[in-house]
Amino acid sequence: VLDDLPQLGHRGLPRPVGGNPVEGDGADHGHRHLEQGDRRPHLDLCLGIHPVGVGADRTVGGGQLLTQVAGRAGRGESPGDVVIQTHYPNHYSLKHACTQDYGAFYSREIEFRKRFRYPPFTALANLVVSGPDRDESRRGAEELAESLKSFRLQHSDLARMRILGPAPAALERLKRDYRHQILIKTTDRRELNQVLRDTLASLDKKKTRQIQVDIDPVRLL
Predict the structure, then answer these.
(1) d(CA 160, CA 44)
(2) pLDDT in tens, 47-61
(3) pLDDT of residue 221 exceeding 90
(4) Which of 18, 94, 113, 135 could connect to 118 by a Cys-Cys bridge, CB 3.0–4.6 Å?
(5) Neighbours of 191 (CB within 10 A)
(6) Contact 120, 113 (CB under 8 A)
(7) Can you say whether the dihedral through the CA atoms of 36, 41, 42, 43 is positive or negative?
């Protein structure tokens, strides 16, 4: 696709490019950029601000990618336009990215994270139980949650550590496995490590289900 863009430009036609991988990486590979007043539609930016993101990329990444792509529009002699397609047109990360008001964005974002106990105010652990049978995966996640809560009583308390779930994962089925997840929020990493270590050591290793543990996850997919 990128190799055909210069031919379109020579005929004076607009050269739209869509998709995050192309916008964020491919279009700039080998120092390429689009010239002659290129209009750059940036599609599906919503993934960067969707609630399934909890790390820095939940909103920071969306605004950063938007600013990055906008800077690539019209690097030549003619200015360029940027068209944003989003389901969240009033989201503060998009508004502040458009105005490049990073101080205002930080104030809103840090308040959100403090209110809902997201990093950097807490440590997170995302546990995903997966298996070929949906009911078995769900039962395994329920057993895991009960074990986590039991060891929480030994090492922590409800005020410092919250255990959310289990619930079907955002991507409930991946390949041939059904997935259920549990999210832990805590203000004490030492207690988190103790609860996880004791819980995993107590599990029945003969079960066919798999358990993935992601500390400080970027996304909850």
Answers:
(1) 36
(2) 555 555 555 445 555
(3) no
(4) 113
(5) 19
(6) yes
(7) negative
Residue 25 carries which side chain, given as an amino acid letter?
Answer: D
For 202, the enclosing helix (H) or strand (E) is helix 189-202
In angstroms, the CA 156 to CA 10 distance is 66
pTM over 0.85, yes/no: no
Q: What are phi and psi of 18, to 5 degrees?
A: -125, 160
- Residues sharing a CB contact under 8 Å with residue 126, sequence separation 6 or more, in sequence order: 181, 182, 183, 184, 213, 214, 217, 220
Residues 6+ apart with CB under 8 A from 116: none
Lowest mean pLDDT among 15-29, 109-123, 173-187: 15-29
Most confident option among 42-51, 55-64, 115-124, 177-186: 177-186
Task: Give how far Cα 161 sits from Cα of 136, 147, 196, 214, Å.
Answer: 27, 14, 12, 16
